[in-house]
Amino acid sequence: MAYDGQNVLVSVVIPAKSEGENLIDTVVAVRENSGGIAPEIIVVDDASEDGAPQRLAARFAEDDLVQIIEGPNEGIARARNAGAAVARGEVLVFLDGHCFVPPGWLEPLVAPFADPKVGMTGPGFRSIRDPRARACGITWADASLGNVWLPPETQGPVPFHIGACQAVRAELFAAEGGFDSGMTRWGSEDVELCLRLWLMGYDVH
After folding, report:
1. What would the pLDDT profile of 80-110 be if each residue is shown by its tens digit?
2. What are the distances in angstroms from CA 16 to CA 43, 105, 143?
3. CA-based nearest residue to 203, from 159, 167, 171
4. Are the CB atoms for 196 and 176 separated by under 8 Å?
5. 129 band by pLDDT with thresholds 50, 70 and 90
């Protein structure tokens, strides 16, 4: 398969629980800034109480690439799995509903999958409030398993990548059973998936 941005279908799965206008801004950014890939966008409304998914549905009512589904209201891992279950893409991108993606963001995430050893990719991050705050990937500081950001110049394999934006081969994600559905609260489901991919012989980039 050619991962050149033109011959691969990408599904962007966005779990949302009362994300407010951030959710709409995130979907607009994905829709406008994905270049030639034009991914399908699946928003999983995980029992939001702010009406944002309904406003989003009204705004994109005529857009076949945007759909909103009801989530299980059992935590982010299960919400992401619910979105993946209806996704058609060969690459799944799990994106938080309060992230801004800049122009050209998607092709660099997809391209590394041309190497069959790569199981997951992720971008560098910066704070919207402070554009100087940049980091890429995480590791553990010590036996306490506290997360430590890696420096922004990091490229290639990293120990872990956070779930705010993770791209993974859909076939591999399904074979591994997705995110651990037993992790019903926030945190660690992203690192746990990275660990499983490494144990299966895949790199996280």
Report:
1. 999 999 999 999 999 999 999 999 999 999 9
2. 7, 21, 32
3. 159
4. yes
5. confident
Alpha helices in 34-91 (DSSP H): 52-59, 76-86
User: What are the angstrom distances between the C-alpha of 157 and each of 28, 114, 117, 201, 203?
Assistant: 30, 15, 11, 12, 6
Residue labelled with tokens 């705004």:
59
Q: Which of 195, 192, 191, 203 is nearest to 120 (CA)?
A: 203
Least confident piece of the model among 54-58, 63-67, 72-76, 107-111 = 72-76
The pair of structure tokens assigned to 99 is: 């992230």
| φ/ψ (deg, to 5) at 124 | -75, 160
Phi, psi of 192, deg, nearest 5: -60, -40
Work out whether the CA dihedral 27, 31, 33, 37 comes out positive or negative: positive
Identity of the residue numbered 142: D
**Dihedral Cα 153, 92, 35, 5, nearest 10 deg:** 90
